[in-house]
Amino acid sequence: MTSQSRPPLLGVDGLVVQYRRPGAAPTRAVGGVSLEVRSGEVVGLVGESGCGKSTLARAVCGLTPAEEGRITFDGTPVRPLNVRRRDPALTAVQMVFQDPYGSLNPRRRVGAQIVDGIRAAAGRGETDGPRTPEEYLSRVGLPESDAQRYPHEFSGGQRQRIAIARALAARPRLLVGDEPISALDASAQLHVATLMRSLALESGAGLLFISHDLSVVRHIADRIAVMYLGRIVETGPAAELWDSPRHPYTQALLASIPQPDGAGVLPAELPGDVPDPSAPPSGCHFHPRCPHAFDGCDREEPRLTSGGVACHLHPAA
Ligand SMILES: Nc1ncnc2c1ncn2[C@@H]1O[C@H](COP(=O)(O)OP(=O)(O)OP(=O)(O)O)[C@@H](O)[C@H]1O
Ligand SMILES: [Mg+2]
Protein backbone atom coordinates (compact mmCIF):
# COMPACT_ATOMS: atom_id res chain seq x y z
CA MET A 1 0.00 0.00 0.00
CA THR A 2 1.27 3.50 -0.71
CA SER A 3 1.13 6.10 2.04
CA GLN A 4 -1.72 7.79 0.20
CA SER A 5 -3.92 4.70 0.04
CA ARG A 6 -3.18 3.66 3.61
CA PRO A 7 -5.85 4.80 6.07
CA PRO A 8 -4.80 7.77 8.18
CA LEU A 9 -3.55 7.02 11.68
CA LEU A 10 -6.49 9.01 13.02
CA GLY A 11 -9.57 9.55 10.90
CA VAL A 12 -12.44 11.70 12.15
CA ASP A 13 -15.40 11.92 9.84
CA GLY A 14 -18.52 14.00 10.48
CA LEU A 15 -18.13 13.78 14.26
CA VAL A 16 -20.99 15.14 16.37
CA VAL A 17 -20.81 15.16 20.18
CA GLN A 18 -23.62 16.55 22.28
CA TYR A 19 -24.01 16.96 26.03
CA ARG A 20 -27.53 16.41 27.29
CA ARG A 21 -29.14 17.69 30.43
CA PRO A 22 -32.73 16.99 31.39
CA GLY A 23 -35.04 19.86 30.53
CA ALA A 24 -32.43 21.81 28.54
CA ALA A 25 -31.43 22.00 24.90
CA PRO A 26 -28.42 19.76 24.17
CA THR A 27 -25.03 21.41 23.97
CA ARG A 28 -23.65 20.60 20.56
CA ALA A 29 -20.00 20.81 21.56
CA VAL A 30 -18.73 19.21 18.33
CA GLY A 31 -20.98 19.79 15.36
CA GLY A 32 -19.74 17.76 12.42
CA VAL A 33 -15.94 17.73 12.41
CA SER A 34 -13.75 15.87 9.95
CA LEU A 35 -10.02 15.69 10.55
CA GLU A 36 -7.05 13.43 9.82
CA VAL A 37 -3.70 12.88 11.46
CA ARG A 38 -1.08 10.81 9.66
CA SER A 39 1.91 9.01 11.16
CA GLY A 40 4.79 11.41 11.60
CA GLU A 41 2.52 14.43 11.34
CA VAL A 42 1.74 17.14 13.88
CA VAL A 43 -1.72 18.66 13.56
CA GLY A 44 -2.48 21.73 15.66
CA LEU A 45 -6.08 22.36 16.71
CA VAL A 46 -6.78 25.91 17.85
CA GLY A 47 -9.81 27.93 18.89
CA GLU A 48 -11.20 29.99 21.74
CA SER A 49 -12.32 28.61 25.08
CA GLY A 50 -15.53 26.61 24.79
CA CYS A 51 -15.29 25.87 21.05
CA GLY A 52 -15.15 22.09 21.64
CA LYS A 53 -11.45 21.21 21.53
CA SER A 54 -11.40 19.06 24.68
CA THR A 55 -14.63 17.35 23.70
CA LEU A 56 -13.13 16.44 20.34
CA ALA A 57 -9.95 15.18 22.04
CA ARG A 58 -11.89 13.01 24.47
CA ALA A 59 -14.04 11.55 21.70
CA VAL A 60 -10.93 10.72 19.66
CA CYS A 61 -9.55 8.74 22.62
CA GLY A 62 -12.84 6.90 23.13
CA LEU A 63 -13.57 8.71 26.40
CA THR A 64 -16.70 10.56 25.27
CA PRO A 65 -19.30 8.94 23.03
CA ALA A 66 -19.95 10.27 19.55
CA GLU A 67 -23.53 11.00 18.61
CA GLU A 68 -22.85 10.84 14.90
CA GLY A 69 -19.86 10.27 12.66
CA ARG A 70 -16.95 7.91 12.73
CA ILE A 71 -13.55 7.85 14.39
CA THR A 72 -10.91 5.41 13.22
CA PHE A 73 -7.47 4.57 14.51
CA ASP A 74 -5.39 2.92 11.81
CA GLY A 75 -8.59 2.17 9.94
CA THR A 76 -10.29 0.48 12.94
CA PRO A 77 -13.30 2.18 14.54
CA VAL A 78 -12.68 3.69 17.98
CA ARG A 79 -15.59 2.95 20.26
CA PRO A 80 -16.13 4.51 23.65
CA LEU A 81 -15.33 1.89 26.24
CA ASN A 82 -15.52 1.50 29.92
CA VAL A 83 -12.09 2.67 31.10
CA ARG A 84 -11.53 -0.63 32.90
CA ARG A 85 -12.12 -2.56 29.71
CA ARG A 86 -10.17 -0.30 27.43
CA ASP A 87 -8.92 -2.17 24.39
CA PRO A 88 -5.17 -2.82 24.99
CA ALA A 89 -4.51 -1.74 21.40
CA LEU A 90 -5.81 1.69 22.39
CA THR A 91 -2.84 2.21 24.70
CA ALA A 92 -1.24 3.18 21.40
CA VAL A 93 -3.39 6.31 21.68
CA GLN A 94 -2.26 8.45 24.61
CA MET A 95 -3.72 11.69 25.82
CA VAL A 96 -2.17 14.43 27.91
CA PHE A 97 -5.09 16.13 29.61
CA GLN A 98 -5.70 19.81 30.08
CA ASP A 99 -5.70 19.25 33.85
CA PRO A 100 -2.80 16.91 34.64
CA TYR A 101 -3.98 16.56 38.24
CA GLY A 102 -7.03 14.71 37.01
CA SER A 103 -4.98 12.19 35.06
CA LEU A 104 -2.26 11.39 37.62
CA ASN A 105 -3.08 9.09 40.51
CA PRO A 106 -2.41 11.11 43.68
CA ARG A 107 -1.63 7.98 45.72
CA ARG A 108 1.07 6.51 43.55
CA ARG A 109 4.64 7.61 43.04
CA VAL A 110 5.34 9.29 39.74
CA GLY A 111 7.89 6.66 38.72
CA ALA A 112 5.37 3.83 39.20
CA GLN A 113 2.88 5.65 36.97
CA ILE A 114 5.48 6.02 34.23
CA VAL A 115 6.29 2.31 34.56
CA ASP A 116 2.60 1.64 33.72
CA GLY A 117 3.25 3.33 30.39
CA ILE A 118 6.44 1.34 29.76
CA ARG A 119 4.52 -1.91 30.51
CA ALA A 120 1.66 -0.92 28.22
CA ALA A 121 4.18 -0.41 25.42
CA ALA A 122 5.86 -3.74 26.18
CA GLY A 123 2.44 -5.40 26.05
CA ARG A 124 2.17 -4.26 22.43
CA GLY A 125 5.68 -5.50 21.69
CA GLU A 126 7.16 -1.98 21.79
CA THR A 127 10.38 -2.49 23.67
CA ASP A 128 12.81 -0.08 22.07
CA GLY A 129 13.21 3.28 23.73
CA PRO A 130 14.04 4.11 27.35
CA ARG A 131 13.31 1.36 29.88
CA THR A 132 13.24 3.33 33.12
CA PRO A 133 10.96 6.12 34.40
CA GLU A 134 14.04 8.17 35.27
CA GLU A 135 15.02 8.36 31.62
CA TYR A 136 11.58 9.64 30.64
CA LEU A 137 11.66 12.23 33.42
CA SER A 138 14.98 13.57 32.27
CA ARG A 139 13.69 13.75 28.71
CA VAL A 140 11.03 16.19 29.83
CA GLY A 141 13.50 18.21 31.89
CA LEU A 142 12.86 16.81 35.37
CA PRO A 143 15.43 15.29 37.74
CA GLU A 144 15.54 11.51 37.94
CA SER A 145 14.92 11.62 41.70
CA ASP A 146 11.39 12.91 40.99
CA ALA A 147 10.38 9.32 40.25
CA GLN A 148 10.14 8.74 44.01
CA ARG A 149 7.79 11.67 44.64
CA TYR A 150 3.98 11.96 44.59
CA PRO A 151 1.98 14.21 42.23
CA HIS A 152 0.94 16.69 44.93
CA GLU A 153 4.59 17.54 45.53
CA PHE A 154 4.83 19.22 42.13
CA SER A 155 3.73 22.50 40.56
CA GLY A 156 1.13 22.53 37.79
CA GLY A 157 3.81 22.93 35.14
CA GLN A 158 5.87 20.07 36.56
CA ARG A 159 2.77 17.86 36.61
CA GLN A 160 2.23 18.63 32.95
CA ARG A 161 5.78 17.49 32.23
CA ILE A 162 5.14 14.28 34.22
CA ALA A 163 1.92 13.64 32.27
CA ILE A 164 3.84 14.07 29.02
CA ALA A 165 6.57 11.68 30.26
CA ARG A 166 3.98 9.08 31.20
CA ALA A 167 2.21 9.36 27.85
CA LEU A 168 5.49 9.06 25.95
CA ALA A 169 6.50 6.01 28.02
CA ALA A 170 3.56 4.13 26.50
CA ARG A 171 5.26 4.66 23.09
CA PRO A 172 2.04 6.00 21.58
CA ARG A 173 1.43 5.86 17.87
CA LEU A 174 -0.95 8.77 18.34
CA LEU A 175 -0.42 11.36 21.06
CA VAL A 176 -3.27 13.76 21.79
CA GLY A 177 -2.18 16.78 23.84
CA ASP A 178 -5.04 18.89 25.17
CA GLU A 179 -3.45 22.21 26.18
CA PRO A 180 -0.50 20.16 27.44
CA ILE A 181 1.66 23.21 28.11
CA SER A 182 -0.88 25.66 29.53
CA ALA A 183 0.46 25.49 33.10
CA LEU A 184 4.06 26.11 32.06
CA ASP A 185 5.83 29.47 32.15
CA ALA A 186 5.64 31.32 28.86
CA SER A 187 9.39 30.82 28.50
CA ALA A 188 9.06 27.02 28.81
CA GLN A 189 5.98 26.57 26.62
CA LEU A 190 7.66 26.61 23.25
CA HIS A 191 10.51 24.46 24.56
CA VAL A 192 8.19 21.72 25.88
CA ALA A 193 5.93 21.90 22.82
CA THR A 194 8.97 21.44 20.57
CA LEU A 195 10.12 18.57 22.77
CA MET A 196 6.72 16.88 22.42
CA ARG A 197 6.97 17.20 18.68
CA SER A 198 10.44 15.72 18.49
CA LEU A 199 9.78 12.90 20.96
CA ALA A 200 6.53 11.94 19.26
CA LEU A 201 8.01 12.05 15.77
CA GLU A 202 11.16 10.21 16.85
CA SER A 203 9.03 7.09 17.23
CA GLY A 204 7.02 7.81 14.08
CA ALA A 205 3.88 8.77 16.00
CA GLY A 206 1.29 11.34 15.01
CA LEU A 207 0.54 14.26 17.33
CA LEU A 208 -2.72 16.15 17.70
CA PHE A 209 -1.73 19.25 19.63
CA ILE A 210 -4.57 21.32 21.04
CA SER A 211 -4.10 24.88 22.19
CA HIS A 212 -5.77 28.24 22.13
CA ASP A 213 -2.36 29.73 21.39
CA LEU A 214 -1.77 29.90 17.66
CA SER A 215 1.66 31.47 18.18
CA VAL A 216 3.00 28.25 19.78
CA VAL A 217 1.10 25.88 17.50
CA ARG A 218 2.47 27.41 14.33
CA HIS A 219 6.02 26.56 15.40
CA ILE A 220 5.40 22.86 15.92
CA ALA A 221 2.46 21.91 13.68
CA ASP A 222 2.70 20.73 10.09
CA ARG A 223 -0.99 21.47 9.63
CA ILE A 224 -3.39 23.61 11.63
CA ALA A 225 -7.16 23.28 12.03
CA VAL A 226 -9.07 26.26 13.42
CA MET A 227 -12.24 25.45 15.34
CA TYR A 228 -15.14 27.76 16.08
CA LEU A 229 -18.22 26.71 18.01
CA GLY A 230 -17.92 23.02 17.26
CA ARG A 231 -16.86 23.30 13.62
CA ILE A 232 -13.59 23.46 11.73
CA VAL A 233 -13.64 26.81 9.93
CA GLU A 234 -10.21 26.69 8.32
CA THR A 235 -7.44 24.16 7.88
CA GLY A 236 -4.17 24.14 6.00
CA PRO A 237 -0.39 23.88 6.15
CA ALA A 238 0.82 25.78 9.23
CA ALA A 239 2.98 28.32 7.41
CA GLU A 240 0.30 29.05 4.81
CA LEU A 241 -2.42 29.54 7.40
CA TRP A 242 -0.15 31.78 9.45
CA ASP A 243 0.97 33.91 6.51
CA SER A 244 -2.34 34.20 4.69
CA PRO A 245 -5.33 33.30 6.84
CA ARG A 246 -8.55 33.34 4.84
CA HIS A 247 -11.35 32.88 7.36
CA PRO A 248 -12.20 36.13 9.21
CA TYR A 249 -12.09 34.15 12.47
CA THR A 250 -8.54 32.93 11.78
CA GLN A 251 -7.61 36.50 10.86
CA ALA A 252 -9.04 37.72 14.17
CA LEU A 253 -7.23 34.99 16.14
CA LEU A 254 -3.97 36.04 14.52
CA ALA A 255 -4.68 39.69 15.27
CA SER A 256 -5.29 38.77 18.91
CA ILE A 257 -1.81 37.34 19.42
CA PRO A 258 0.05 39.72 21.72
CA GLN A 259 2.48 41.86 19.77
CA PRO A 260 5.96 42.54 21.13
CA ASP A 261 5.01 46.21 21.57
CA GLY A 262 2.09 45.15 23.79
CA ALA A 263 -0.55 46.15 21.23
CA GLY A 264 -3.25 43.87 19.93
CA VAL A 265 -3.89 41.66 22.95
CA LEU A 266 -7.59 41.71 22.24
CA PRO A 267 -8.73 41.97 18.64
CA ALA A 268 -10.87 45.04 18.13
CA GLU A 269 -12.57 43.32 15.21
CA LEU A 270 -13.68 40.33 17.28
CA PRO A 271 -16.15 41.57 19.87
CA GLY A 272 -17.97 39.31 22.29
CA ASP A 273 -17.46 35.74 23.44
CA VAL A 274 -18.01 32.38 21.81
CA PRO A 275 -21.81 31.99 21.74
CA ASP A 276 -23.64 29.30 23.70
CA PRO A 277 -23.40 26.01 21.76
CA SER A 278 -26.87 25.00 22.96
CA ALA A 279 -28.27 27.99 21.02
CA PRO A 280 -25.80 28.61 18.18
CA PRO A 281 -26.32 31.44 15.68
CA SER A 282 -28.01 30.43 12.44
CA GLY A 283 -26.09 30.02 9.18
CA CYS A 284 -22.40 30.66 9.70
CA HIS A 285 -21.87 30.41 13.45
CA PHE A 286 -19.37 33.23 13.27
CA HIS A 287 -21.57 35.77 11.49
CA PRO A 288 -22.62 37.85 14.57
CA ARG A 289 -18.95 38.58 15.32
CA CYS A 290 -17.71 38.75 11.75
CA PRO A 291 -16.62 42.14 10.40
CA HIS A 292 -17.33 40.98 6.82
CA ALA A 293 -20.75 39.33 7.32
CA PHE A 294 -23.19 40.02 4.51
CA ASP A 295 -26.74 39.10 3.65
CA GLY A 296 -26.98 35.30 3.59
CA CYS A 297 -24.26 34.55 6.15
CA ASP A 298 -26.98 34.33 8.81
CA ARG A 299 -28.98 31.82 6.76
CA GLU A 300 -26.70 29.33 5.11
CA GLU A 301 -24.02 27.26 6.79
CA PRO A 302 -20.79 27.45 4.77
CA ARG A 303 -19.22 24.06 4.03
CA LEU A 304 -15.51 23.41 4.46
CA THR A 305 -14.21 23.51 0.89
CA SER A 306 -11.53 21.22 -0.49
CA GLY A 307 -9.29 24.30 -0.20
CA GLY A 308 -9.82 24.17 3.57
CA VAL A 309 -12.03 27.16 4.39
CA ALA A 310 -15.68 27.37 5.47
CA CYS A 311 -16.72 30.93 4.66
CA HIS A 312 -19.14 32.52 2.19
CA LEU A 313 -16.38 34.96 1.21
CA HIS A 314 -14.48 31.97 -0.19
CA PRO A 315 -16.99 29.82 -2.06
CA ALA A 316 -15.85 26.48 -3.48
CA ALA A 317 -14.29 26.90 -6.93
N1 LIG B 1 -19.41 17.42 30.66
C1 LIG B 1 -20.04 18.43 30.07
N2 LIG B 1 -21.38 18.60 30.23
C2 LIG B 1 -22.04 19.61 29.61
N3 LIG B 1 -21.46 20.52 28.81
C3 LIG B 1 -20.12 20.41 28.63
C4 LIG B 1 -19.35 19.38 29.25
N4 LIG B 1 -18.06 19.53 28.88
C5 LIG B 1 -18.03 20.59 28.07
N5 LIG B 1 -19.26 21.13 27.91
C6 LIG B 1 -19.62 22.29 27.08
O1 LIG B 1 -19.24 21.97 25.74
C7 LIG B 1 -18.66 23.10 25.09
C8 LIG B 1 -17.26 22.74 24.62
O2 LIG B 1 -16.46 22.49 25.76
P1 LIG B 1 -14.93 22.02 25.64
O3 LIG B 1 -14.45 21.77 27.01
O4 LIG B 1 -14.86 20.92 24.66
O5 LIG B 1 -14.25 23.35 25.02
P2 LIG B 1 -12.71 23.74 24.86
O6 LIG B 1 -12.55 24.26 23.48
O7 LIG B 1 -11.85 22.61 25.28
O8 LIG B 1 -12.54 24.97 25.87
P3 LIG B 1 -11.27 25.41 26.75
O9 LIG B 1 -10.32 26.12 25.80
O10 LIG B 1 -11.84 26.34 27.78
O11 LIG B 1 -10.67 24.19 27.34
C9 LIG B 1 -18.71 24.24 26.12
O12 LIG B 1 -19.86 25.00 25.86
C10 LIG B 1 -18.81 23.52 27.44
O13 LIG B 1 -19.51 24.32 28.37
MG1 LIG C 1 -10.47 22.36 26.73
TrEMBL record:
Xref: PROSITE patterns: ABC_TRANSPORTER_1 (PS00211), ABC_TRANSPORTER_2 (PS50893)
Entry's Gene Ontology molecular function annotations: ATP binding
Record has Nucleotide-binding as a keyword: yes
Keywords from the UniProt entry: ATP-binding, Nucleotide-binding, Transport
UniProt xrefs under InterPro entries: AAA+_ATPase, ABC_transp_ATP-bind, ABC_transporter-like_ATP-bd, ABC_transporter-like_CS, Oligopep_ABC_C, P-loop_NTPase
PANTHER family linked: D,D-DIPEPTIDE TRANSPORT ATP-BINDING PROTEIN DDPF-RELATED (PTHR43776:SF7), TRANSPORT ATP-BINDING PROTEIN (PTHR43776)
Family, per entry: Belongs to the ABC transporter superfamily.
Protein name: ABC transporter ATP-binding protein
Organism expressing this protein natively: Streptomyces meridianus
